[in-house]
Amino acid sequence: MAATPYSMEPALARQMRRNERLFIIQVMWVMPFVVIQQQYVPVLATRLGASPLLLGVLTSGSALALTAASVLARWYLQRAPNAMRALIVPVFLSRLSLLLIPLVLLLPDRQAEALVAAALAINLVIGIVQVTFFAFLPKVTLAERVAVLMGGRWMGLGLAMAIGTPAMAVILDRLDMPVNYFAACGVAIAAGIVEIFTFGAVKPLPAPAKPPARQSAARDLGDILKHGPAARYLVVTLAAQLALNASAPLIPLKLVRELGASDTAYGWYITVYWLALAAMGAIIPRLVRRFGNQRMFALGGAGIGAQMLVLALAQNLPATWAAGAIGGLASGLFQVTAFGLVVENAPPERYESFVSAQLSVANFAIFAGPLLMSGLLSAGLSVGVGLIVCAGGNALSSALASALSLGRQDAHQRG
Fold it and tell me: Are 288 and 337 in contact (CB under 8 A)?
């Protein structure tokens, strides 16, 4: 994704900026899906009586589905007729699959277990969406504008989540189950249809070079591991995602069971988080230009550690808002620069394969981290101590990200 001659042509520059605006608009329409699938499915599972182990399986099993899907996505991309259709089809299927959630609530028993199974099915499709999205991204903008685009997307998503999360919480609180989840999922599916039309308006930029010849997955992986920056970034990804995602079963347990948060109260924590993330999204491009992706990624990891520590010490719900604010700021840094480092560390001519490999490593960590923490909780570890362990893990992964040599060392000097 290096700079190309057409980046200076006025017509293509206008097309590129139009693509960027459409991608920012699209991510705002994804809000209802994210609220339900990421924020309220764990809360619903907790309310349905899921054990700590089952909550861990919810997160870890979903990550395992994402990992399997990222492998399937490589096969899918090679056979898709074009990049746009390759993206739109799994996006539509993932939004439609939300109907599984309210259908689970119609069962006479075993609802928590069925909800976990539904979440696994949904995440299998989401895993394909992840890979196809990041494979399509180089056709939207240039490498030097990735921080601008991703910062804008996270700012847009943050604002949409800050507004939409309380609104969705009102639907979930005011209506009885399962009507509330049928209504909320209906909103998400309708927004998904608008999202697909927004994707369809994007016009891919001309390919700057002939795509690499196809080769086996084993040879692709060998090429990636021979590329020093790519191999080192996979190690950093594993450590950072393990530390980050080990906290997944802890946060709903802390807020819902220990502090007694309702759906609305939990929604306020999420709102503070996303408002902070949106604020960070507005300034990330300038921070990356000045300090580079690697430093900001490490700072984001340290900030997530601070979020876990504040949550561990929180004695009431308002105290968790400070944790949400810290977590939102830190996650904004972490998420945008994580993808910036993918771009900087990808081996030449193996970008799509590296995206798949990096997502596979990240999803494995999303699988392993919560499963390990759930095992510790089942063995008697308290939620507070678990959060402190996660804080230490994030601090260590931040130090590792700072210490290793990653990417183009002059990347932050280009604009």
Answer: yes
Whole-angstrom Cα distance, residue 239 to residue 232?
A: 11
Q: For residue 3, is it within any domain?
A: no
Residue type for position 19? N
- What's the rounded Cα separation, in Å, for the pair 236 and 230? 10
Cα(314)–Cα(77) distance, integer angstroms: 46
User: Please, what is the average pLDDT of the chain?
Assistant: 84
DSSP one-letter string for 196-256: HHHHHT--PPPPSSPPPPP--HHHHHHHHHHSHHHHHHHHHHHHHHHHHHTTTTHHHIIII
How far apart are the C-alpha atoms of 208 and 12, rounded to whole Å?
12
How remote is the C-alpha of 382 from its chain's centroid?
Answer: 27
pTM of the model: 0.73
> For 71-123, what is each residue's pLDDT tens digit?
787 778 777 767 777 888 889 999 999 999 999 999 988 999 999 999 999 98
What CATH number is associated with residue 333? 1.20.1250.20
